[in-house]
Design goal:
It contains one helix and no strands. By secondary structure, it is an all-alpha fold. The chain has a domain of 48 residues. The longest helix has 64 residues. The N and C termini lie far apart (109 Å).
């Protein structure tokens, strides 16, 4: 076993080509992935804004109804 040691001075070109192609693919997809993430974030923000607007409107209607009830109570008493 003493003479079976080997040294590798060069990486197989097929391996370096495969890694290079993978890196090119990742770099090429990065802008589209970033834009997709941005669009999802914007969509979620718009949905939350709409939900908050609905909630605020519901709370305002409760306030208006209670004010109307108090006003009618004062008119009838």
């Amino acid at each position: 076993m003493a003479g079976s040691e080997t040294t590798i001075d060069q990486v197989n070109p097929m391996i370096t080509d495969a890694i290079t192609q993978t890196n090119v693919d990742v770099v090429a997809n990065a802008p589209s992935v970033a834009m997709g993430s941005l669009y999802q974030t914007i969509g979620n923000s718009v949905a939350m804004a709409a939900a908050n607007a609905v909630y605020a409107q519901q709370q305002a209607n409760v306030t208006y109804q209670s004010a109307s009830t108090m006003g009618i109570k004062e008119l009838l008493s």
